[in-house]
Amino acid sequence: NCPPDVEQLGRATWTFLHTTAAYYPEKPTPTQRANMLMLLRALPLLYPCKWCADDFGQDLVKHAPDVSGRVALSRWLCERHNEVNSKLGKEKFDCAKVDERWRDGPPDGSCD
């Protein structure tokens, strides 16, 4: 019943962002693109971990979000997540497996 610590908050946020990207349209409308950009740009302003927020905000400036479609957004987000993992000394994720992890589940059907 404790509030989430920074690691729990980070995992929950990445889960939300990756899952949102996994179900983002292949061909988003201009409104959907604008809404996704607003969501991503709001994180550095609202995220409760100041260091995390500042770091993500700097990353947004260096690497503009690609909201052109589901695949591009998922790859962009995976690359950002891998940059964070690298800074934290964590293993990088294989971005070729984003759909398996966040949308379809493993080929063995164990998540069905």
Automatic annotation (TrEMBL):
EC number of this enzyme: 1.8.3.2
Residue ranges annotated for the ERV/ALR sulfhydryl oxidase domain, each copy included: 2-102
Gene3D superfamilies (UniProt xref): ERV/ALR sulfhydryl oxidase domain
Reaction(s) this enzyme catalyzes, per UniProt: 2 R'C(R)SH + O2 = R'C(R)S-S(R)CR' + H2O2
PROSITE patterns for the chain: ERV_ALR
A single MF term (Gene Ontology): flavin-dependent sulfhydryl oxidase activity
One GO location term (cellular component): mitochondrial intermembrane space
Enzyme's top EC category: oxidoreductase
Name of the featured protein: Sulfhydryl oxidase
Source organism per UniProt: Laccaria amethystina LaAM-08-1
